[in-house]
Amino acid sequence: xxxxxxxTYDLEIRTFEFARDCRFLVKDxxxxxxxxxxxKQLIRSSGSVGANYIExxxxxxxxxxxxxxxxxxxxxxxSEYWLGLLNEMNQNETNRIEKLIKEANEIxxxxxxxxxxxx
Length: 119
Known about the structure:
By secondary structure, this protein is mostly helical. It contains four helices and no strands. Helix 1 runs antiparallel to helix 2, helix 2 runs antiparallel to helix 3 (62-89) and helix 3 (62-89) runs antiparallel to helix 4. The termini are far apart.
């Protein structure tokens, strides 16, 4: 993940880095039943943030653009949820997980700002 001083401003790259960093986290977590199940959900939702953002850039019209952006935003919020659960169960990774929660929240707020500007 980029440091606070080196934020990525290209949202396609930033969402890719978010999904990648979630995968690095999952790779390092203890293989408990809850970690495995919550991690699967995190992998799906974190990847969907960027995938839907990329699809929004290939929009079929303004309605499609807003629809894809809303899905991307929803997936970012869902990623926050799964990260929160993982955070509760993995106190040894709290700092790392909290950085990812913050990034998911920032991406969600950026997407909300784009959606509001388009309306």
